[in-house]
Amino acid sequence: MAVTQAPTRELTPEPRGRLLVWLTTTDHKKIGILYLVNSFSFFTVGGIFALLMRTELARPGQQLIGAHAYNELFTIHGTLMIFLVIFPILAGLGNYFVPLQIGALDMAFPRINALSFWLLPVGGLTILSGFLAKGGAAACGWTCYAPLNEQLGTGVDLWLAGLILVGTASILGAINFIVTILRMRAPGMTMMRLPVFVWGILATSLLVILATPVFTAGLIMLFADRRLGTSFFDPAHGGVALLWQNVFWFFGHPEVYMLILGAWGVVTEILSVFSGRPIFSYRGVVLSFLMITALSFTVWAHHMFATGAVELPFFSITTELISIPTGVLFFVWLGTLWKGKLRFEVPMLFALGFIALFLIGGIDGVWAASPAMDFAIHDTYWVVAHLHYVLFGGTLFGIMAGMYYWFPKMSGRMLSRKLGQWHFWLQFIGFNVTFFPMHILGLRGMPRRIADYAPDRGWSFLNLVSTIGAFLIAISLLIFFANVLTTLRKPRSAPADPWRANTLEWATSSPPPPHNFDALPAIHSGRPVYDARVAEAGPTDRGSR
Amino acid sequence: MSTAEITDERVARATSGPILGMVLFVASEAMFFATFFGAYFTIRAASPAWPPKGIPHLEIGIATVLTVILVSSSFVLQQGVRAIRRGDGRGLQAWLAGTLGLGISFLGLQLYDYSQLGFGLKDGIFGTLFYVMTSLHMAHVFGGVVFLGLVFTQARTGQLSRSRHESLEAGAIYWHFVDVVWVGLYTVFYLLTPR
User: Fold this and answer.
1) A380: helix, coil or strand?
2) Among B54, B82, B90, B108, which has the highest number of CB atoms less than 10 A from its own CB?
């Protein structure tokens, strides 16, 4: 039991030199920050790739980049954003805040924790190093379907090696999270008092453990086919090309939920804090998370309707089913806001933006679950719109909400509210200007993953609009980075609990000491910090809350 | 009784962190191998004849010996676990040495079997499935031998005791899992492949 043990780390002298401290740290908070720094670096790279693509597509005709380079860009853009940005940011926030939220000293396995972080930059750089290889980086899309994936150059091998490293990192991380959550909780922190973000990370980790190894197996099969002369995906030698799609999506659809469950947890918590209301139905949230975790293993072939080789009604029904727990979450969010005293701080703005955009992305998903609809929009820009509404409009807005919410805890400094508002509005408007027109482009038949289009197709204007939106997003993110960098130069002044929040991380100083807590408050509910605040205010004040 | 005391008591009864971690790791490994079995049956179902033409008949003899070796090694290892639970450190060392011996002979015999088969990795889809699946399993046996070898060193230097032998318990869970995977491979490649 961690809480009852003495903090042994204090006994070993820290190595000298700040860089060495960061390179060798096993402190979950420092590792969490390393995750964030690493992810936002890859985010910048992936974002520049997106801007290059949007610039190319702004007008018909080839201006900036050739078709093959374009293929490399969208492949690596997707791969980086999914595996090295969105997922690791959530894992980083989880690293920092899961132990704090459950009242633990650290993660269960601190050294494995450091290992699972350091595999990430190595894996990411391996993928990126494809640009230096003969034939360039992987150019088969992040899904990298057979048989194209067997025909391209060395870039695909580097892509495979990088993803195996990243996948291994996430499996180790997931084991660590589950053991931490099940074994390291402070006295009184029962499972049904866990903050919803911790539930999100727990569900994510279950998905990682059960789905990621499937992907690893597929990557190994592909590598063996490419380099060892086997024939898993090669029909000419008895293999089955469609096997790759089945393996990929059996992992790939749970992956989608790995990318959002954590963000749902962040947003649910923030909505509760900034509306001054308890979560409308805590049990509803937990049950939805668990149902989605289970159902996400039954829906993979909805990505393969157009192959004609899958059971359409089955996968259509399971996909419609999974929208039910997702719908429950929406009602929980609305119920939490209902009659609340809303405080429109920056984290709340992003959380509300999340609800609006994720609703659009979610409804897009329900549409696409219908095979009749899917046949029409498969592989068009409509799909690009859908996936960005859930992953960017959804998860990334949730992540930004979390960044503004937790930045004071991590750094001891409050981010500028004014810059935060600019960031939010520019990102919100820029996002919709970029991605909403893609719905229409898709319905007008524009295929995804093309570097150029003819001027007479009627796609030119909306593509130009979309490109302008992409640059608005870029400006909004520059504001965010400027906000972070200027704030970090200011003196530490953030109080322990600047937001009047509920969960345990706000019971310790900002930033927390190396051992996390000098003293833990008594935990009698899911909102120990709220309880402590009410008790301090005295009985007269209790009625007014 | 305070809350802290209650919790401590509960924790003492619950599975320890490292063992829980190993159970989760084995769950993820199970999905890893399940993918290959899924691939096997997908490919076999799409194949006009099984085994495909031109593949020499797989002799069941050596594979059966391999099965006996690995399955009995699990029982031997479990005797070691029972020994240390009684506090019998010397007994543990003997049983562990036996397990390691059986594991190493499994690896040696399987390599010999490979040399006798008469078809290779590149000989069509059967070679692909057989060699990739059995060699990934072999890598896991090798990993298990290394892991249990480290546990053996711990046992020899007296680091394991009746109350503290999590590494052994975790290693045993892993070893039994690797054993079960082999039984699956034996079933699929020998028992379920028509002659």
Assistant:
1) strand
2) B82
Q: Count how many pairs of residues, chain A against chain B, have C-beta atoms within 8 Å.
A: 113
Domain coverage including residue A415: 19-542
**Tens of pLDDT, residues A10-57:** 445 555 688 899 999 999 999 999 999 999 999 999 999 999 999 999
Q: How far is CA B161 from the centre of its chain?
A: 24
In this structure, CATH architecture of domain B17-191 = Up-down Bundle (1.20)
pLDDT digits (tens, 9 = 90+) for A223-278: 999 999 999 999 999 999 999 999 999 999 999 999 999 999 999 999 999 999 99
Mean pLDDT on A140-169 = 95
Indicate yes or no: CB of B43 within 8 angstroms of CB of A238: yes
- CA-based nearest residue in chain A for residue B8: A1
- Residue A288 has which token pair? 């939805």
**Most B-contacting residue of A180, A202, A209 (CB-CB within 10 A), to test interface:** A209
In a domain, A3, yes or no: no
Residue A2 included in any domain: no
Mean per-residue pLDDT over chain A, rounded: 94
CA–CA min distance B174, chain A (Å): 15
Chain A residues whose beta carbon lies within 8 Å of the beta carbon of residue B24: 174-175, 178-179, 209
With beta carbons under 8 A apart, name residues in chain B contacting A191: none
ipTM, interface predicted TM-score of the complex:
0.93
Q: Which residues of A touch B28 (CB under 8 A)?
A: 171, 174-175, 209-210, 212-213
| Chain-chain contact of A239 with B128 (C-beta, under 8 angstroms) | yes
Taking the C-alpha atoms of A332, A336, A338 and A342 in order, what is their torsion angle to the nearest 10 degrees? -140
> Cα separation of A64 and A130, whole Å?
20
Cβ <8 Å between B128 and A220: no
CA distance A466 to chain B (A): 40
Written as six digits, the tokens of A216 are 């690893």
- Whether A463 is in a domain gets the answer yes
What lies within 8 Å, CB to CB, of A30 at 6+ separation is A21, A22
Is residue A196 in a domain? Answer: yes
CB contact under 8 A, A178 and B14: no
| Among A275, A299, A279, CA closest to A287 | A279
Nearest Cα to Cα of residue A408 among A275, A267, A511, A320: A511
- Rounded CA gap, B36 and B28, in Å? 13
CB A473 within 8 A of CB A427: yes
CATH code (residue A495): 1.20.210.10
Give dist(CA A490, CA B122) in Å, integer. 63
pLDDT of residue A311: 92
In A235-311, which residue ranges form alpha helices assigned H by DSSP?
Answer: 241-258, 261-275, 282-295
pLDDT tens-digit profile of B64-123?
A: 999 999 999 999 999 999 999 999 999 999 999 999 999 999 999 999 999 998 899 988
Nearest CA in chain A to B33: A217
